[in-house]
Each structure stands twice: as structure tokens, then as C-alpha cells.
């Protein structure tokens, strides 16, 4: 009994830490690469925080559409902060080690904010559908209580979906010396491939989470816009049609910016193993960094009330 127990204890191995990388093959110029990354992180945090402040301090923006926009901005702040510390630590200081448990925590928040973002985009498409198809009852349907419940449901859904993932990874036996990750952050598909055990359960559960969240959300968003298009085509005036569709442009761009990289990451992790590591890294950075950068730019450019509220706040700050 004793030898067998000793053997089990020795053969089960979990690394104390993982070794992260920045941009594979470009380690010598990480210092220069950190400049655009730092700029993008700054734009993402500044832009999304400005949207949050603009909506919070402007009574005329206390409407369902802008509440959902605030949820998107808050999610983008969370997504940015999930990857910022380790990415800049690797690029600035070449600090590449991350503890095993810290890696699982980062992975949980990173994927949770991704699921939340997908759910918020779905809620925003529902908001546009109600506003266009039933404008007279818009405020009565999307009351503050309903919006709060939607927000809580979104957070609960992401938390419950991702909660088992770290524990499914902790049960795995990892290979000694195989602790090199493919990114400067902890990605579920990347971490589980470092294991020396059967990861079928992890793969199947990961696939279930993707299909039941991002997959379902994307189908419902397409359905929402099919119904929106049907409603718009029923409007008598071409001018009214253009005006109605124009209110959806920002959201459509936000959806494309989020879902196209998501599809790219999923396809590459499953079918692109032969591709260079730099391709995997760049697609992952596009997926995690670009949407939080572009979303506030899109909404500030396309939404006049948001743009005016942001400029008003900046002017008040300068005068103060």
C-alpha cells in the first residue's frame, strides 16, 4: 500500500507557476511593442471610464440604451484589467512567471468578462428591437427594475458557466517542464494543453460553455436583427427606415468587432495548430484588446448625446 501511495503522490504534478510569452519571435523588440500596447490600454480605460462618467452624470442619458452602453463599457474595463498586468509585465520588465492559482484566477475573470460582453451585446440588440418595433411602450417595457434584473442575470450566467473551469483544470496531472504558455495571459485552451492527462472533459465543457453562451447569443442577435429589418421594411417612409437603421449602426459595429475575433480564436485553437505561434498570439490580442479600444470610439463618434456629454465633462474638468 505504502509504495503505491508514494507513487501516486509523485506522479501527480501541478506546476508552481507558468511561463508566459509576449509576441513569439519578437522578444528582442518587446520594449518597442509595449508602446502601442500601452497606448491601446490607455485608450480603452480612458474611453470606457469617460462613457461611464458621462452616462452617470448626465440625466438626459438615464435611458435603457445608455444603461446597456454603460454595462458594455464596464465590461470592457474589466476585460482590459484582466490582461493588462501580465501583458505589460512581460513587455516592460520581462516578468514572465505567473503562479498556478493566479493563472486560474486570471483565466476565470478573462473568460467571464468575455461571456458578459457577449450577453450585454445580446441585451443591447433586444433594446434596439423594442425601441424600433414598439417605440411607444419602450420605456414601459425596459424599466429600471427590468434592466437591473437583466444585468444580474448576465453576471450570474457568466459566473455559473465559468465557475467549474478552474476546478476541472486543478484535477489534471501536468507535465513537469511543460509550463510554457502561448500568450502573456492565461487562456483556457492554452492552459489545459499543458496537461499530461486526458482533457476530454475539459474540451467538452469548454465547448459547451462557448456554444451555450457566445453561440446562443450570436444566434439570438441575428434573430433580433432579422425582426428589426422586417419591422423597418414595414415603415412607409424611406427616411424613417434610414433613421431607424442608423440607431443600430454602433451596435452592429460593436457586435462585429467582438464576434469576428471570437470566431477567429475558436477556429485557430481547434484547427490551426500548424500555424505559426505569432498568428495565435496576434489573434488572441485582437480578441481581447481591440474591442475595449474601439467600442468607446465608435459610440462617441456615432452617438451625438454621448459625444456631447463627454466633451462637456472634459470642458468642466479643464475649467475646474
UniProtKB/TrEMBL annotation:
Subcellular locations according to the entry: Cell membrane; Membrane
UniProt keyword Membrane, yes or no: yes
CC per GO annotation: plasma membrane
Record membrane topology: Multi-pass membrane protein
Molecular function as annotated in GO: G protein-coupled receptor activity; olfactory receptor activity
Transmembrane residue ranges: 7-26, 32-55, 67-93, 105-126, 146-169, 203-228, 249-272, 278-301
Highest taxon listed in the record's lineage: Eukaryota
Role, per record: Putative odorant or sperm cell receptor.
Family in the record: Belongs to the G-protein coupled receptor 1 family.
Name of the featured protein: Olfactory receptor
